[in-house]
Amino acid sequence: MPNSLASATTTSTANLKQQFDVLIIGSGAAGLTLALSLPTTTRVAVLSKSEISEGSTWYAQGGIAAVLDSTDSVESHVADTLAAGGGLCHKDTVEFTVANSKAAIDWLIARGVAFTRNSGGDDYHLTREGGHSQRRIIHSADATGKALHTALNEQVKAAENIELYDHYIAIDLIRQAEAGSRKLRCTGAYVYNRKSDAVETFAAKAVALATGGASKVYLYTSNPDGASGDGIAMAWRAGCRVANMEFNQFHPTCLYHPKAKSFLVTEALRGEGAKLLLPDGSRFMDKFHELGELAPRDVVARAIDHEMKRLGSDCVYLDISHKSEEFITSHFPTIKQNCLNYGIDITREPIPVVPAAHYTCGGVIVDKHGQTDLNNLYAIGETSFTGLHGANRMASNSLLECIVYAQSAAAKITATLADISTPTDAPQWDESQVTNSDEDVVISHNWDELRRFMWDYVGIVRTQKRLERASHRIKLLQKEIHEYYSNYMVGNDLIELRNLATVAELIIRSAIDRKESRGLHYSLDFPELAPIARDTIMVPSNFADQDIIVQA
To answer: How far apart are CA 506 and CA 511, in angstroms?
Structure first.
């Protein structure tokens, strides 16, 4: 395995090309918040696998859930989150996150995030989304992620202690023993420079994974191309446990149009009164949940999936045309314009929509500071499993989790950084036995096959037979990918394919292990809830290498 971590550790050491106090892999809300929350004396590197703005944060439309109104309460927000989570939310995590929600929003406002105000301009406008009993979603029109990312990105670029590296994709983490000890810690990562087509070694006292989720493992997704589960896969290979990978949230409403790649239609439309309609114009959500269109996302996604299959329809419709044109234009300018680009005027006609993979509720197991099982390795944002989302993420809790846990990780890193020795060398990346490939068609074929069978066999509704088929296919596919990876130079597509295969295996294994229907995991073979709610924890074969054990 010339390109593998195992092979690299047997080679001679070399002087480090890039050395920092903290290496942050990922440039979304979690990564940028962590970078800005560290002391200005800390040397920080932030890696982005594409343009700095090309991530899930940039495309987030809805907003951030927080207790901001006098009629709302921490207890209410906690109760709503626990109810949506299907019995699997960790209550202490939910309470910790919600208790810090107002401070998180205040921090964002202080950094220039322009949230939408009420018509009088005296206070911020709050909207309501599925699962919430109160209006508690603070937003920037219907492009909250863009506003948040723009503000944080400007501050990061202005910070003298932070260096941004775009078009860099991490391959694997570096684990080394402490001097005079067998205790392992994370000391950096091997990173592929997409511009120079070369592998570079980044070393750091602490490393944070903020690479987002793994929704690109599915054929249809609302996520940008980079959501390939890189952080989860790297942490797993480095010996960290992962949990609840079977809970993949499918956003109920993505624009259905042959030329619209992955355009999400925010849940805030339903929060403001939009109705879901069948092709004949009739409503159907009241048959599935007492909250109708404001039911939790898993209920809405399954309802749409059911109606589409029952009718043989390609899509259903989301209609907000009963609202005034002024209201729609002021609240949803991005959606209105994007739909107009495809010939759909949402002020006069309904929007054709379908469900698509949207959010990875499971991830790398961490504590309340984002610490993983490997010493000095942190995971934050969608890459991590904190216990906040349980079996079903409640709308707009994800950006909140990014901010709260990034700041908590920053506090822990700041408190411990002085006691961590600086890595002075690292195993050299070895590509002496690999060649350039002239068969890249293998990568594209495997990529397509993987995403198609995940959609068909491990989608919104599952059966054990479909999952076993997926398990058989992923084993064969991983064997092919492993052989290819071992013999050819790495590139962006190969790195992502390898990671997608890893997270696909984890999703499939987790889904097979869950013999019930709970939250986002719905099985026709096991339609009832199990009497006891348990997390699905996957343990890698090299887990015992670590001395740091995070309480799951």
So the answer is: 8
- Do 62 and 359 meet the contact criterion of CB atoms below 8 Å apart? no
Asked if residue 549 is part of any domain, the answer here is no
φ/ψ of residue 52, rounded to 5: -55, -35
Structure tokens at 41: 């004396």
Residues linked to residue 15 through DSSP beta bridges, in sequence order: 425
Distance CA 444, CA 430 (A): 25
User: Residue length, the chain?
Assistant: 552
Q: Do 102 and 222 fall into the same domain?
A: yes
Catalytic residue among 175, 297, 498, 518: 297
Residues 6+ apart with CB under 8 A from 36: 111, 152, 155, 156, 159, 162
Tell the burial category of 440 from Cβ atoms under 10 Å away from its Cβ (0-12, 13-18, 19+). middle
**Residue 547 lies inside a defined structural domain of this protein:** no
Residue pair 36/158 in contact (Cβ under 8 Å)? The answer is: no
Residue 551 located in a structural domain: no
Question: Do 502 and 237 touch, CB atoms closer than 8 A?
Answer: yes
Q: Helical H runs in 209-264?
A: 230-237
349 and 363 share a domain?
A: no
Domain membership of residue 539 (yes or no) is: no
User: Using CA atoms, how far apart are residues 443 and 499, in angstroms rounded to an integer?
Assistant: 13
Which stretches in the chain have pLDDT values below 50?
A: 1-15
**CA angle (341 as vertex; 336, 343 as ends), nearest 5:** 90
> Which strands form 126-127's sheet, in the order they lie side by side?
64-65, 137-138, 126-127
CB of 360 closer than 8 Å to CB of 216: no
304 and 335 in one domain?
A: yes
Q: How far apart are CA 238 and CA 172, in angstroms?
A: 8
Buried b (16+ CB within 10 A) or exposed e, 23-32: bbbbbbbbbb
Give backbone dihedrals phi and psi of 301, rounded to 5 degrees, phi first. -65, -45
Buried b (16+ CB within 10 A) or exposed e, 467-479: bebbbebbeebbe
- What integer pLDDT is reported at residue 168 of this predicted model? 96
pLDDT at 145: 84
Reported as a single tens digit per residue, the pLDDT across 333-392 is 989 999 999 999 999 999 999 999 999 999 999 999 999 999 999 999 999 999 999 999
Number of folded domains in the chain? 3
- Answer yes or no: 297 catalytic: yes
* Domain that includes residue 33, residue range: 16-247+359-420
CB atoms within 10 A of CB 282: 8
Task: Give pLDDT, residue 53.
Answer: 67
> Does residue 87 sit in the same domain as residue 207?
yes
**Same domain flag for 100 and 190:** yes
